[in-house]
Design a protein that fits this description.
Layout (H helix, E strand, L loop, with lengths): L1 H19 L7 E7 L6 H11 L5 E2 L2 E9 L4 H13 L5 E4 L3 H13 L4 E3 L17 E3 L4 H14 L4 E7 L2 H16 L3 E8 L7 H9 L4 E5 L6 H9 L5 E4 L6 H7 L7 E4 L13 H17 L6 H21 L7 H12 L4 E3 L2 E3 L15 E6 L2 E4 L2
Parallel strand pairs: 1-3, 1-4, 4-5, 5-6, 7-8, 7-9, 9-10
Antiparallel strand pairs: 2-3, 11-14, 12-13, 14-15
Helix pairs in contact: 2-11, 3-4, 5-6, 11-12
């Protein structure tokens, strides 16, 4: 009888430990920061929509997503990530939508030793992989990778001169750094370098200076709907050269707002944007089409966005990395966050909606040239350029 009581008491004590302070049954908490309002809302909304479609269980653990809106504001992004790591005690962070916000979030994520998967493009978010960026990863193609696609296309098209206009923030300026380096290396002369803020109401002065030298092509380094304004201004002033945009415009709001003024635009994009046009032999097609079908079943035909794909791919990374991390530690602990960081860094040959990802200790983007192609806007649609 005494032995039964002792065993029962031990069982009660073990159960109490699990309920009160143990983490063996803890769920995985994913903190998400998106720009669902403000100038970048056309990018952040499909990301927020995608979070609702992501797995609610990974590796036998329930997953809770805590989604916060930074309103396209850097200060709000930092406040949000502080809340997620200090109050909500998240195991991993996804976000934010835009480069300036993601850059601002890095210190908080690193100091709290919480792995962060950015949905922004700039190479500076993950390069170089120093003590802080050891905790930071990202899903979109880097501006350096996409800039090389544009310059390769310009070289093939015998472009000799180009003018540049980009956002004043870190997205536009990082694009300038990457593109200007490649243009000069390939002997393409840069005739102008202009900039504007995403909240500006006019770019007339900048566009007059852009077209003054009659460049063969203009490269606009902007994102979302603010990218339409300089292109409209170019068309209004009769510019007939080639116009290149970045992968920051690869959503349907750009097409809707730009209308006829964005016809003929060339841009680098991930496979998801033209998934149905890919060869059946392309291993990325199946994954990209799966996400497209899941998203459009929920939100309507034609609603899929590459920006939603960036969020979806973060989910695929977690599905690959979490089971390995769970072999070493349990959610809700510092040890689990470290194990998850290590598992993400060890992702190899993961097919995502935008490419095939292989991370390493020196590469926290993990994408190669299979993640980029040139797309052209024809009749209000995205068409794989020939």
């Amino acid at each position: 009888m005494m032995q039964r009581i002792t065993v029962w008491g031990l069982q009660l004590a073990a159960a109490a430990a699990l309920l009160c302070g143990g983490s063996a049954w803890a769920q995985i908490k994913v903190g998400v920061v998106v720009s669902a309002t403000g100038p970048a809302a056309s990018l952040g909304i499909p990301e927020k929509n995608t979070i609702a479609l992501m797995p609610k269980e990974i590796g036998g653990k329930k997953v809770e997503y805590i989604v916060l809106d930074d309103a396209s504001d850097t200060t709000s992004a930092v406040q949000n990530v502080h809340k997620l790591v200090s109050e909500d005690k998240v195991d991993v962070i996804i976000g934010s939508t835009v480069t300036p916000n993601s850059l601002a979030m890095i210190s908080v994520a690193a100091e709290s030793e919480t792995p962060m998967i950015s949905m922004s493009a700039a190479a500076a978010i993950v390069e170089p992989v120093d003590a802080k960026r050891a905790w930071i990863f990202k899903t979109p193609q880097s501006d350096s990778l996409m800039a090389s696609a544009i310059v390769d296309h310009m070289v093939a098209g015998n472009i000799k001169t180009v003018a540049f206009i980009g956002l004043t923030d870190s997205y536009g300026q990082n694009w300038w750094v990457q593109a200007s380096k490649l243009l000069e290396k390939n002997g393409i002369k840069i005739l102008a370098n202009e900039s504007y803020a995403p909240t500006d109401s006019s770019v007339t002065g900048q566009i007059l200076r852009v077209i003054a030298g009659k460049p063969d092509a203009v490269l606009i380094a902007s994102r979302g709907t603010p990218a339409v304004m300089p292109q409209k201004a170019l068309k209004e002033r009769g510019y007939t050269g080639k116009i290149y945009q970045t992968h920051g415009v690869a959503n349907n709001d750009f097409l809707r707002l730009g209308g006829k003024d964005v016809e003929g635009t060339l841009l680098p994009a991930g496979p998801l944007l033209v998934a149905a046009q890919l060869s059946d032999s392309n291993p990325i097609k199946k994954t990209a089409m799966h996400f497209k079908n899941v998203y459009e079943k929920q939100y309507g035909a034609g609603s899929v966005s590459t920006f939603g794909g960036h969020a979806w791919d973060a989910g695929l990374m977690l599905e690959a990395a979490v089971p390995e991390a769970l072999k070493k530690a349990q959610p809700g602990t510092k040890e689990f966050r470290k194990a998850l960081r290590d598992s993400i860094e060890n992702i190899r040959d993961l097919v995502i909606s935008q490419g095939i990802m292989s991370m390493s200790k020196t590469d926290h983007s993990g994408l190669d040239q299979r993640a980029r192609l040139i797309v052209k806007i024809e009749n209000g649609k995205w068409v794989l350029a020939k």
